Amino acid sequence: RGLQVHFPIYRGLLRRIVGHVRAVDGISLDLYAGRTLALVGESGCGKTTVGKGLLQLVPPTGGSVRYRGQELIGLSHRRLRAFRKDLQIVFQDPFASMNPRMVVGDIIGEGLHALRILPKRADRLRRVAELLELVGLDPEAINRYPHEFSGGQRQRLCIARALALDPRIIVCDEPTSALDVSVQAQILNLLKDLQEQLGLAYLFITHDLSVVPYLAHKVAVMYLGRVVEHGPVDEVLDDPRHPYTKALLSAVPVIDPTRRRQVIQLDGDMPSPRQPPSGCHFHPRCPEVMAICRHHYPVETRLGTKRRVCCHAVAAGLTD
Ligand code: SF4
């Protein structure tokens, strides 16, 4: 609730704080067992920082992260270890997220060793072999090195590593964006199957809206550290209400030649989270901007029971 991650900006030898990068600026999300929440937005909007803040890999500077009734923010490292096994992450780049000098058996079994769940290596390797099978790899691969695998296989290894501790929540941080399109589909299928088998909750971070309907149940659209639209996937994608969501969706190619979608071109780049624009942060790029947008950040408008949109035009009933 109200998660904030602000990074201080230091200057000079005395490291005086001269400002803050408001990477995540007060967002509220819920995750449920067996469900996927997709977090979408442009690069630099704060999606990855949300995932890391949730897992306490970067320290949040405000708000609350509750897991099964327990507040995680502010817990000591020792107390946080008890929750580490339940909360795991799969990173974007399977090439960079594994130690090239370790064999697969040790990479995947590292968490089991660190948390002393399986202190004996032979036990760990048995468990790793099971995990390799679970993610569709040959269990014999435990003695091979990461460079001996293709990109898709390496991402399977990363998923096996995340599963090793029997987690309940996995943050999937753009797990397919470094892969070829054909391999992307295989990884998405694997994630979907694992969720069905294990009842996992996913926070699926992506800049690619086209993969959202395939995997997610709900979607939250982020812009400059805040969620601007949130709701069930089919409702948001069939009838986007926030002008930013509309623009993102308009960029997704439609395969059906009988359907045409007008591409909404946004001017300029996303502003810096160090000095976000006044009022609605999206107003310098918004095709539907009004005078009020320049001075006042919109409060959340509820549409039905499940949707939330932060936009003055939606609040005033002015958008289609
Ligand atoms: Fe556009 Fe105004 Fe809505 Fe912001 S509040 S998205 S500037 S219409």
From TrEMBL:
Residues 1-249 form the ABC transporter domain. It is found in: Cell inner membrane. It comes from the Bacteria. Belongs to the ABC transporter superfamily. This is ABC-type dipeptide transporter. It comes from Allochromatium warmingii. The chain holds residues 382 to 701 of 701 of the full protein.
